[in-house]
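User: What would this chain look like folded?
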Amino acid sequence: MARTEAPHCCDTPMTPIVYGMPGPELLDESMEGEVELGGCVIFDDAPMFRCLRCGRTEGRLGDVMDEHFEGDSWG
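Assistant: Here's the prediction, encoded as structure tokens.
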């Protein structure tokens, strides 16, 4: 997963937050600080990135889900 620059902390990369049950590879990435595990409960306001320097979060998971399912009919 790609990191994005934190606009509030100069050049500190923000760490992606991954939701759901992690497998062995994802656990390793978490231990190395490449991703942060967000847990198994997923909600619209869940953040997508966290700055490891200051703890600030950015993004909203619901925005990505809205874009992904835009135009789909569910019945």
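The mean pLDDT is 80. If you want, I can go into more detail on any region.
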